[in-house]
Amino acid sequence: MKKIVKTVSAMLIGTSLLVACSGNSEKTWSEDYELSDISFPLEEEVSLKFLTESSPLAPEDPNDKLIFQRLEEETGVHIEWRNFTGAQFGERRNLAMSSGEMPDAILNAGYSDYELLNLAKDEAIIPLNDLIDNYMPNLQAVLEEAPQYRAMMTAPDGNIYAFPWIEELGEGKESIHSVDNFPWINVKWLNELGLEMPTTTEELKEVLIAFRDHDPAGDGQTIPMSFIINDGGQDPGFLFGSFGLGDNWDRTVVTNDGEVKLTAADEGYKDAIKFMNELYEEDLLDIEGFEQDWPRYVAKGQEGRYGLYFTWDKGNISGMNDDYDLMAPLAGPDGHINVTRTNGMGFDRSRMVITSANQNLELTAKWIDQLYDPIQSVQNNWGTYGDDSQQNIFEFDESAQMLKHLPLDGTAPVELRERTSIGGPLAILDSYYGTVTTKPDDAAWRLGLMEEVMVPHMQAENIYPRVFHSREELDRLSTIEADLMPFVNRKRAEWITNGKVEEEWEGYLVELDRLNFQEWLEIKQAGYDRATE
Questions:
Q1: Residue 24: is its pLDDT beyond 90?
Q2: pTM of the model
Q3: Per its UniProt record, what InterPro entries does this chain match (predicted)?
């Protein structure tokens, strides 16, 4: 067995981890099968031991998923899973690594960059460069077609420590990831009340007042505008673009001159907060929006109580019907219109790691490489075909060797995906659409809305890229953000309800400086400059 980690950073241990797997005498990694020059399927089946996370909607045993059953048949490799959900996974994952009871690999690992680099420093995970170059032709083909991802995968020390998830759906401004929090407005109510679609912030306020006064949901159930504050796609920050730079989930934007800025320190941000307070004072905002969770948000949306709400896809909240439509960006008081781009893209750096306990590196690398086969990657991401026990997301066209999306028939896309897909490392490039697979109907529809409604009003030419900062930079960023971001989020919610943004603004900026905001900007700017030079 390779060297097991001698020391592990305290951040991985976690105060909540008291006991757990440490009493288990069975080895948590596989024996050395002494296999080389491997080709699949193997003549004799062997097993590997993986730790993973999956959705509560998915089978408790990942091997009950048809995708994994097919993989086992095609490779001759049986996977022994330790599978957890939610917060339990993070605790068990960290405990396994800190106690030395490592699996061969961790699928859907979910490590931050800081955690990856600490694990690498402690030799708990291994560099993957040679494995990729020697044993992974599918992944190599992806990186040859889209070489930008190799740079994103590579740590500052030149090593690759994790296998990524890559999902391309449009490029540049037209990427499906450019805006998370689409604003969905109740056009059924607009028509019933004889109202026009709002085009300015003031018109929106008037529409929401009409919703409040006429109570189209009945029995006082109408909620003019709902959201989940500081919650990505459900946050009302889309409206902030009418007042300046706007806002996004990580509070970071890049100007067209290449300057990194914190949205929450912009003068326009203050004006947007004042507008939100106006809506609050008129009883137009869902008071639960400052604390509700996703199930509560969905439940009220399915009851048809919202005049306006925010989310990625209305199908998950109010259904794929004609009652709600996408509201275009609004002109602010001075006529300013801007759609703030998120810094999102279909790339996750740490979907799978191989631990230093693994004694079957060629076997593991070649198994993982199967996940990067184009047909396989598509299924990993969305689900599979030919499952007689439940709804399928695809049919497989044998003659064209192509996966074709089936109608969802009212099923929420996120629900079907979580039941049947496996996540993990994969790659879906834009070139696959029309050759390997069709675009999902919901994605094609959303891309069309993006191009038609949002892209014409996106002023920013740049986003903040997936910078792989050094351990030292990440240490400072995480330390600063531990105080900075909660403060920003707290004041954001407070000001919307108490209306004190104007009188507290100067003191707020002073506090940002005290919380090392300027150092945060310098580190982020240095990372941006390196990544774009």
A1: no
A2: 0.85
A3: Bact_solute-bd_prot1, SBP
